[in-house]
Design brief:
Layout: H1 2-12, H2 14-26, H3 32-42, H4 50-74, H5 77-84, H6 87-92, H7 96-110, H8 113-116, H9 123-126, H10 128-133, H11 138-163, H12 167-205
């Protein structure tokens, strides 16, 4: 995978950065760390420059995020409620009220997570789906996505250009960061689920 990414970027330059980052947003297993840090390294021995690599990477992030946003919009709250009312909802012990609460939370408090989640691997892509499902205003979605993506892209591209031929050491560090971030997210998710069912069980007994 890494060698394919490198070959595409060396062959297509800025366009390669744009397309790969757009794909990375839609298919999270593609590592943005490799694309961005190698893109930074390329500025040290090709005609590519750091600002334009960042611009094309951010445009790619935006296109990928918009695709997932509209996927979320297609899988809207009403369709999710229908799913919850079926067998899947019974298996997961979910109710329509749970969907309503989650949607209300995202509308009132969760939209800023579109910005902060841009710094968390895998989640940085997937957060666009609930944004679309809750019909987050497109203007706000674009602002948060561009801002978060620009910061993430800038840090990795600049680091790649500074490290030069040692750009791969950043990828190794980011792999560890990704694993730690995902472990923390899993723990938080499990904690949230336990807390959710605990509160619901208490309401039933009261």
């Amino acid at each position: 995978m890494e060698q394919v990414i490198i070959d595409l970027m060396e062959q297509f330059g800025y366009l390669g950065v744009f397309l790969l980052i757009a794909l990375e947003n839609i298919f999270p297993p593609i590592p943005s760390e490799v694309i961005l840090t190698f893109g930074g390294f390329m500025t040290t021995y090709t005609s590519l420059n750091v600002p334009l690599v960042i611009v094309f990477a951010t445009l790619g992030s935006l296109v990928g995020a918009i695709v997932l946003y509209f996927i979320g919009k297609i899988l809207n709250k009403d369709r999710l409620i229908k799913i919850v009312n079926g067998k899947i909802g019974k298996v997961l012990r979910l109710k329509v009220e749970d969907i309503e609460k989650a949607d209300k939370w995202f509308d009132t408090k969760g939209q800023i997570t579109v910005f902060f989640c841009r710094f968390i691997p895998i989640v940085r892509s997937l957060i666009s789906i609930p944004a679309g499902m809750s019909e987050m205003p497109m203007k706000r979605f674009l602002i948060y996505t561009i801002a978060g993506s620009a910061i993430w892209n800038t840090v990795l591209v600049v680091l790649g250009s500074i490290m030069g031929e040692n750009w791969n050491s950043i990828v190794s560090f980011m792999d560890n960061y990704s694993h730690i971030a995902l472990i923390i997210l899993v723990i938080l998710f499990i904690g949230a689920v336990i807390y959710f069912y605990y509160r619901r069980s208490r309401k039933r007994t009261n």
